[in-house]
Amino acid sequence: MEWTSQPEIALLRDLVAIHSVSGTEEAIARWVEAWAVAAGLPVVRDDASVTVTVAGRTPGETLAFVSHLDTVPAGDGWTRLPFSPTIEGDRMYGRGSGDAKASVASMLSAALDLARAGGPEQGRLLVVLGYEEETRHTSLGRAVERLGRIDAAVVGEPTNLEFAIAQRGLMMVDLVARGVQRHAGYAADTPDFVNAIVELGRNLARLPELFCERVHPVLGLATATPTMLEGGISRNVTPPVARAVLDVRSTPSWTHAELAEQLRRSLDVEVVVTSDRLVPCETPPGSRLLQLARIARPVGRAFGSPTCSDWVFVRDRDAIKCGPGTSRRSHTPDEYVDLPEVTAARRFYLTLAQAYLR
């Protein structure tokens, strides 16, 4: 197949070719705006998002397709040019091809299909494309605040078109242990001597058992994973301070405040929460959106996602996370997306929008 004859694939190729590492999205935002204008779709570009609207024939609910225009940096290890989209067989390689420009291309293409079919029967479809999602400065929160009523949302992230019905949150925590600084040769001179590194290690060993009392039915246990260690001032001096950074992946079974309290209650070191804004999310029981998604894509499987996304900004709505691409390929060298999935996503998003806005 000549894949670029498919409009969504040609659109994806153009998007991948535009360098849009977080913080440098102006060029791609302007390009999407121009694409929408040329397609005859109402579009607003501001400092929070590019938003395309397809209005229904009568008033009704609002369905939002949400994704992001930025990518992480290319990094090392590529065997292809990261910002020159390359099609090999049924795959497109390039930074952002899966995360998340495949979702962007499919969502925009579905919006155009919906408009050309006369629009939805009622309500409106929004395609909301934010900036800097890959950083702590993600703009989607501001975008959602400005858009008024949103009843349901599909978050476009690589899920192989499976339905993420729960998503882990992320809390960053520093563990700080304090000890006595002295010449290492005299470490055992007094019985009350404390080595900060030993104290920190003793507490780190307790982490696997801390959150076992609450098991989420989809995501399982919350986890606390040490990712960085810092301590020591010289090879022959005992350290006065040792620090570990914890990546805490939360579930809806805990609030972040409860997780922090559990750490403080169970450990003998200082617990400092450095970030807790990425709270866990889950699709509400009896979700109408999920029911319609399963009808639109019967082969779709529901699962729990370990990765964070802009879902946090629509977590109080009826929402799922679903998009083409493989999450494990995100942020890696030679990132790719399977092109049949992109085409299937276009059809899925269109069918879902027509069913929901009816």
Structure overview:
It is a single chain. 26% of the residues lie in helices and 27% in strands. It has 358 residues and is an alpha/beta fold. It folds into 2 domains: 242 residues, Zn peptidases (Aminopeptidase), CATH 3.40.630; 104 residues, Alpha-Beta Plaits (2-Layer Sandwich), CATH 3.30.70.360. The strands form 4 sheets. It has a 6-stranded mixed β-sheet with strand order 1-2-6-3-7-15. Strands 10-11-9-12 form a 4-stranded antiparallel β-sheet. A 3-stranded antiparallel β-sheet has the order 4-5-16. Helix 1 packs across helix 3.
Question: Key features?
Answer:
358 residues, 6-stranded mixed β-sheet, Alpha-Beta Plaits, 26% helix, alpha/beta, Aminopeptidase
Protein topology:
Elements: H1 7-16, H2 26-39, E1 43-45, E2 49-55, E3 58-68, E4 86-88, E5 91-93, H3 101-116, E6 122-130, H4 140-146, E7 152-155, E8 163-167, E9 169-178, H5 196-204, E10 223-231, E11 241-250, H6 256-266, E12 270-278, E13 281-282, H7 288-296, E14 302-305, E15 318-321, E16 336-338, H8 339-356
Parallel strand pairs: 3-6, 3-7, 7-15, 8-14
Antiparallel strand pairs: 1-2, 2-6, 4-5, 5-16, 8-13, 9-11, 9-12, 10-11
